[in-house]
From TrEMBL:
Keywords: Oxidoreductase
Organism, as annotated: Streptomyces camponoticapitis
Lineage, uppermost ranks: Bacteria, Bacillati, Actinomycetota, Actinomycetes, Kitasatosporales
Domain FAD dependent oxidoreductase: 11-323
Signal peptide span: none
Name of the protein in question: D-amino-acid oxidase
Gene3D superfamilies from the UniProt entry: D-Amino Acid Oxidase, subunit A, domain 2 (3.30.9.10), FAD/NAD(P)-binding domain (3.50.50.60)
Length: 342
């Protein structure tokens, strides 16, 4: 059995109630740990709320976290069985480019022709000659999932401190983690899990811990649209697009004007489509684009979980990180994601 070094503890403080921190807190509390979850705001109110929230394991072929990403949809199905009513929609995803040649299909994907694309998305003005269909993909109500995870953590005994900014990490005389300082006073814990997104680097810096994560802007547009205009998660060179309510779409793209024009030119019946809001989320982007997950060797008791594709990976990372934290075992799927690779 592989054992993590330094050793971990069953007394945890999780900093950050975004979807990753909430998942770690839920899974650790469910496994019997004593968990304190603390956040400066409300569950999922930060970058989690500004995520396009596409859940997909298809097409994953390479990269340090390829094995982790390949489990994403299965882990969400497992989580949905544990938390019935979890707000995830399994619509599949349809992707295409302007190139005429047939694309390559990755694991879990199928190449479909124009007729099939038109069946999957009936309002397309001009179905693509070829598209990639991933029937197992889905999308989450990211804030709703986070709230359910926090409620699940509470149900398993976790203490939750919201609207409570963490100001510093605490260490004892031997240099080991002892908890956190907050605006409302100290919170004790033998292990601190940093799941604070882009704030993770600033919290680690006073301890000499370098977490190479930078803010990466991610515009998200909300549109008013007719019911049923889009049925799947649609991915093109112009946008990622999906229906989130009978009269609402969200799009991840660069420009609101170009996105609105592209939606109108791609789908029929879009005369009434209008832009409702624009949000600019600041997602945490590790230096190499891959998750940073695991213990920090130079600060015993400190464990980091920061990543892009946080919504996609949250169910898997929460379960695996909790196993490492509560049981002290090293999970092979996380082995290439360690902080010491930098």
């Amino acid at each position: 059995m592989n054992v993590l070094s330094p050793p971990v503890s069953r007394d945890l403080v999780v900093v950050g109630a975004g979807i990753v921190g909430a998942s770690v807190a839920y899974h650790a509390a469910r496994a019997g740990a004593t968990v304190t979850l603390v956040d400066a705001g409300r569950p999922g109110a930060g970058v989690t709320a500004d995520s396009f929230a596409w859940i997909g394991a298809s097409g994953v072929r390479k990269g340090p976290a390829a094995g982790l990403r390949a489990t994403a949809t299965a882990e969400y199905h497992r989580l949905g069985a544990e938390l019935p009513g979890l707000p995830v929609t399994w619509s599949g995803s349809l992707s295409w480019t302007r190139e005429g040649s047939a694309p390559d299909a990755g694991p879990g994907q199928t190449i479909v022709d124009a007729a099939t694309a038109a069946t999957l998305e009936p309002t397309l003005r001009q179905p693509p000659q070829w598209a990639v269909w991933a029937p197992d993909d889905g999308a989450a109500d990211s804030v709703g999932v986070t709230e359910r995870l926090v409620a699940g953590a509470r149900a398993h005994g976790a203490r939750v401190h919201l609207d409570t900014p963490v100001t510093a990490l605490r260490r004892d005389a031997a240099g080991r983690i002892a908890g956190v300082d907050t605006a409302a006073g100290p919170l004790s814990g033998a292990t601190v899990v940093l799941a604070a997104g882009v704030a993770t680097a600033a919290l680690g810096a006073p301890l000499g811990v370098r977490v190479p994560v930078e803010p990466s802007p991610c515009p998200l547009f909300r549109l008013r649209a007719p019911a049923g205009l889009v049925r799947t998660v649609v991915n093109t060179e112009d946008f990622d697009l999906r229906q989130v309510a009978p009269d609402r779409l969200i799009a991840a793209a660069d420009s609101p004007e170009r996105t609105l024009a592209a939606v109108r030119s791609t789908f029929q019946g879009t005369g009434s489509v209008e832009l409702l809001s624009t949000r600019l989320g600041v997602r945490p982007m590790p230096a190499d684009g891959e998750p940073i997950i695991g213990p920090v060797a130079e600060v015993p008791g400190l464990y980091v979980t920061v990543m892009h594709s946080a919504v996609t990976l949250a169910a898997a990372v929460g379960r695996l990180a909790a196993r490492e934290l509560v049981e002290g075992t090293a999970e092979p799927a996380l082995s290439a994601c360690r902080p010491d690779r930098f």
